[in-house]
Amino acid sequence: MPELEEMALPTSLTSVGSLSPLEVEEILRSRVLLDVCIALLVFICPRALPLVGNLLSLNTAEPWLSYTEWGKKYGDLLYVRLLGQNFIILNSENIARKLLDQRSSIYSDRPVIPTNTLFGVDFSTVMLRYGDEWRLHRKLFHQALRPESDLRYREVYFTGAQRLLVNILEAPAYFDTHLKDFVASNVMALAYGYEVEMRDDPIVRTVRELVDLLTKALSPERTAALAAFPFLQHLPDWFPGAGFKRQAAYSRNAPPSIVADCLSQIDETVDYDTQEFAIKAVAATAFIAGYETSSSLLHSFILAMLLYPEVQTKAQAEIDRVIGTEKLPSFDDRLSLPYIDAVLHELLRWSPVTPLGIPHATTTDDVCNGYYIPKGALVIINVWAMSRNKMKFDDTEDFKPERFMTEDGKLVNDPATTSDPIFGLGRRICPGRFAAEAFLWMAIVSILSMFRITKAKDAYSKEIPVERKFTTGISVHPVDFPCWFISRSAGRERLIRQL
Ligand code: HEM
């Protein structure tokens, strides 16, 4: 494989970790890093396609298991040069905070990834280069999704959770679809103030298919198929709300949403078109960025409850003790339910949905701990390794909410759930984190209050084993598994059936 020679480190750079071609190959076994690389690789050098084929044939099952090893083997900062592109991999939270938080003016760009343009999603906040357009997007997100705005959406999350429970009661085998619909309804409400139908909403279905396609698009083997879907370049027009034009007055009476908030704040005297395009883009991004990540986490939550029934029992005991067995939990109960918050925090740690974050890029050269980091380098946040930091957490593969509880049963406050590296770092940190953690909490507490989740049984009444397995890609999702939902409260069932 002669091309691998090119991956060796150039002597002009002070290498962070000096890797032999074999070691580089080992790192490339990670399918997720590969996903990032391939998109760039095909862009930088189309002739590299045969190499892409070779790399894809590597054994890539459970790639993140090796992410924890990188730090141990190569240190906190790892440098890989691949076909002319510099990759810096941050393996520890300390170093990541030092660079991305404290030197955020250098580390807040994004690499140019050709799939975005091909799929017509280059408008998305997530992949915008560091500059004025991105700043305008962040301002709009901040107006709509800052922590104080959360209160306005509580009713939406609560109603959505009740619908989720009804859907699971009626068609438990499709729980994954119901979880996705729950997330979709929240994100649609956040973005557009749009109230989705109880089940199988046509707009949600269309957008869900699109997001599925986009998630797959980031996987390298699909790159070749991109040119086949030029219609996706018209993506923003597919979204509800895209038809609005100069309706700022109308929006003031509309339900709260990103679009309504932004329209009501629009400055009609300056550059209206730029602002209007940014509002559409921000709303569409909210769906793309929030949907897959949040529904994957909820699917992982069900998996964790199956694999750790003792955690489920403890959480349900807390709910029944605090609110009784007849009432449905609401946000007013949150402070009295610390263990449920610990479950949420542990879920984020146990199942980092984007194990290598979303790559940042440097805007100028930098030096860190005596190492030279070049301008334009791709900066990968090894979230997986951070969540497996043995200095911070013991038994890292176990689901143990107790690690976020004090001995006297209080929640450990520091750090807050929303500052978990799963939401990224620095200026590009996820602006949807406050909303996401609120509606995830609502879903978790509602499901636990209503159902005992157990392993499914086969025709011989034998439990069907469940394993913790995830798909690969830039964001990961648990592989489908069967399970049963057993109603635990006739009183609660009556309440939600009144809907
Ligand atoms: C649990 C669910 C979620 C997770 C785990 C998550 C995770 C992330 C991560 C890792 C990033 C990249 C941060 C970085 O570059 O350092 C990100 C960016 C982003 N997320 Fe989220 N996210 C979630 C939910 C949401 C929701 C619900 C929304 C919107 C309503 C949202 C909107 C965004 C946007 C707009 C960006 C791009 C920020 C930028 O590039 O400046 N996310 N998210």
Automatic annotation (TrEMBL):
Highest taxon listed in the record's lineage: Eukaryota
Cofactors: heme
Transmembrane spans: none
Molecular function terms from GO: heme binding; iron ion binding; monooxygenase activity; oxidoreductase activity, acting on paired donors, with incorporation or reduction of molecular oxygen
Gene3D superfamilies: Cytochrome P450 (1.10.630.10)
Pathway: Secondary metabolite biosynthesis
PROSITE patterns assigned to the protein according to its UniProt record, in alphabetical order: CYTOCHROME_P450
Binding site for heme: 430
Keyword list, A-Z: Heme, Iron, Metal-binding, Monooxygenase, Oxidoreductase
InterPro entries according to UniProt: Cyt_P450, Cyt_P450_CS, Cyt_P450_E_grp-I, Cyt_P450_sf, Cytochrome_P450_fung
Stated family: Belongs to the cytochrome P450 family.
Protein name from the UniProt record: Cytochrome P450
Organism the protein comes from: Pisolithus tinctorius Marx 270
